[in-house]
Structures are given as C-alpha cells and as structure tokens.
Specification:
Shape: globular
Strand order of the largest sheet: 1-3-2
Main location: cytoplasm
Organism: Micrococcus flavus
Radius of gyration: 18 Å
GO biological process, one term: negative regulation of DNA-templated transcription
CATH architecture of the largest domain: Orthogonal Bundle
Mean pLDDT: 84
Order of helices and strands: HHEHHEEEEEH
CATH class of the largest domain: Mainly Alpha
Protein name: Fur family ferric uptake transcriptional regulator
GO molecular function, one term: zinc ion binding
Structural class: alpha+beta
C-alpha cells in the first residue's frame, strides 16, 4: 500500500497556513488520507509506513490528533466503529455507512449550510454543526445478503 502523492507542496503549504510545523510524517498522513479517505488509524499507519518505514504508531496518532485539532482533518466515529479520518473539506457533507461491510461514503448535505438540522431545544447552546450518519446496506452487501436473514441494526462496523 503506497501513498499517491497528490501534491506534497500543497500539503506543506496547508500545514504552514494552519500554523503547524511541516514534518515528513504530517505530510505523509495528509497524503494517505487523500489516497484513502475514511481510513482508520491503522490503515493510515500502514500507508505512511510504505513511504516512511521508521515512523512509529505514536507519531501517526500524534499527527492525526494535531491535524484534527488544527481543523485540517476530520475524525468520524459512527456507532460501533473505530475512528476514521478524512481531509476536512468544510463543505458540510454527511456520511452513509454500510451495516454489512462498514463502507463509509460522503453524501452532500441537503441544505448545504451548517447547521443543516435545528434542535427543537438548544438548551442555551450556540449550535454550529449537525453530524449525520445514514445507515443501510451497500449494493455489494445487499446482493450477497441471505434473504432469510434481515440485516441487524446493531451490526458492528469494522
């Protein structure tokens, strides 16, 4: 699993613009997420190690934490799933999750602006975002599903 370097110069500029130090692991993590959106930390680690074999687990976890804190990466954690990561697009999109295989795909927000949902009671909060997960079965899982057994609503997502 090797990283496709879309534009390392753009990733370095992105890090600088966010006030972050440019390091090879940070650039590699961003590149990995461009190649494999919605990857979990172990998948990001495997991709980064293809280019930087000496990088530690902790370095990749630290990079994900710092990049998420800076708003460059978004952490997603659908119920029953390990955290997954994507480049933060700031486009107010949502996600569709397959109950069978755990595939996670982007779907646009219906309204396009945040927050797209409004709580009936805000309890004094200033709400600026709504996170939506749609759940179902992807076409591959639907085609392979045993018609005698309905899908479980509590199936763990890998």
């Amino acid at each position: 699993m090797s990283i496709v370097h879309a534009d390392p110069a753009a990733d370095r500029a992105l890090l600088r613009a966010a006030g972050l130090r440019v390091t090879r692991p940070r650039v590699a993590v961003l590149s990995a997420l461009r190649s494999w959106p919605h990857a979990d930390a172990s998948s990001v680690l495997a991709a980064v190690r293809a280019d930087l074999p000496q990088v530690s687990h902790q370095a990749v976890y630290d990079c994900l934490h710092v990049l998420t804190g800076a708003g460059l990466v978004r952490s997603l954690q659908p119920a029953g799933s390990a955290a997954r990561y994507e480049i933060a697009a700031h486009d107010n999109h949502h996600h569709l999750v397959c109950r069978g295989c755990g595939t996670l795909v982007d779907v646009p927000c219906r309204t396009g602006s945040a927050p797209c949902l409004h709580a009936p009671e805000d309890h004094g909060f200033l709400i600026d975002e709504a996170e939506v997960y749609y759940w179902g079965l992807c076409p591959a899982c639907r085609d392979g599903q045993d018609e005698a057994a309905p899908p479980s609503s509590s199936a763990a997502v890998p």
